[in-house]
Amino acid sequence: MTAVTRRNLYSPGVDNVTHTLAGAALGNAFFRERIGPAAAPILAIASNLPDIDAAVMLLPDPYVITWRRTFGHSLFLLPIWILGASYLLRRRYPDVSRPAMIGLVALGAAGHLLFDLVNSFGVVCLWPLSDWRPEFAIVFIIDLVLAGILAAPLLASIPAARRDKLAARSRLAVAACALYLLLCAWSRWAGGRLLARSGMDQGASWSYLFPEPFGPHRWRAVVRDPTRYRLYLIDAARGTLEPRGEIATDDADPRAQHAAMTPQGRRLSAFFKAPVWVVEPGEGADTVVRTYDLRFTSLVLQRAPGASFGFRFVVRPDGDVVVR
To answer: Does 315 reside within a domain?
Structure first.
């Protein structure tokens, strides 16, 4: 039996406000004149469709977060969700033809997957055949610039007299959004080159760049040594790399390995990108093993390690991982 506790969980991925704004922008930009005003709300709703798997967050299982971006985002199951959503939306918008409705819902769902891929959480797009969780990791989980670009056409069209230019403004917003994502991708590439040129990752077993908030120029470089991670804050715009400390990991400790070998530990090990295992004294002869992912920390926000998606195991002296 295993004791695992979960704390401070939040819904991962690009926030649903941005998903909704992206769908509305696509609808107004390219389908408002051909299909009608209904295209924008249809795409706004469909752009949240893959988050159907967010329902797992209502379950009591402490490691249920590993199910996020799985069956709702699966390329194998998504056609089912698209057909179901299309049927329901046609009851609300009967003037939209069935093929047009399916196309709009599919476009919204595809846009959702793209926006989820650009941040660092990954999408299990081949679920249930594979736990592979690809990601581009070029945008922080909530990006105010991205949301602002997508919201601009709607805000500029609030006066009724300006609504006739909504389609043109939305097309500009979609183009600006694409350029912004390209800028983020370039910035990450530049940050990676800066890390390589510094030599800080030489001899490391693994290194990775995670996006930081408040601009596309900041990156959190995580470099793995045998028993520790080294952290660096990279400013790609200024060309600077600042050491931000080290975090030890006890994953070679037998007690941490006992925790990692439980069903819950295996799920977390597959889910985490840069797992940290911490072995601490517990009550009596017991040992507490904590684990968290450096993917969900931040140097800019100065979030305490393990504040989000932190889990705790209790290990008995005989190696048993038991409920306390």
So the answer is: yes
